[in-house]
Amino acid sequence: MEERTFHALVGLTREQIANRYGTGTLFALEHRSEGLELAGEETLAQAAERVHATVAHILTHPHQRLAIVSHGGPHGWLLASALGLDVRESRLFRLDEASFSIFAFQPEEKGFRLTRIVTLNARMLPAGLLAQNK
């Protein structure tokens, strides 16, 4: 599942973004992009709805195990939704590079319910950490 992309900003330098859109836009892009909205670009709510629609479509094929490759954004949006949080709070969840998760969903009349999450962050442990526990 795809991450949210600001197509108008692709290929621009930080300086060009600040000049064209303002330093507030640059700051939001670098620190809290979930609140950033640009004319003609997908909003965070629209992106989260796209991910939910994808999951709902996948659930129309019950009794199948599927591998879905995703960026961290869609993963966090699903977690926030499952916990009843606003999608803008999805950055509460830290997902390191090469992480993977197992999600179990229960189809419902209007969409789905997340019933189980198992997540493994695969970032390397600090040197010597395991040796200290012997």
UniProtKB/TrEMBL annotation:
SUPFAM superfamilies for the chain: Phosphoglycerate mutase-like
Superkingdom of this protein's organism: Bacteria
InterPro entries noted in UniProt: His_Pase_superF_clade-1, His_PPase_superfam
The protein, known as: Histidine phosphatase family protein
Taxonomic source organism: Thermogemmatispora aurantia
Phylogenetic classification of the source organism: Bacteria, Bacillati, Chloroflexota, Ktedonobacteria, Thermogemmatisporales
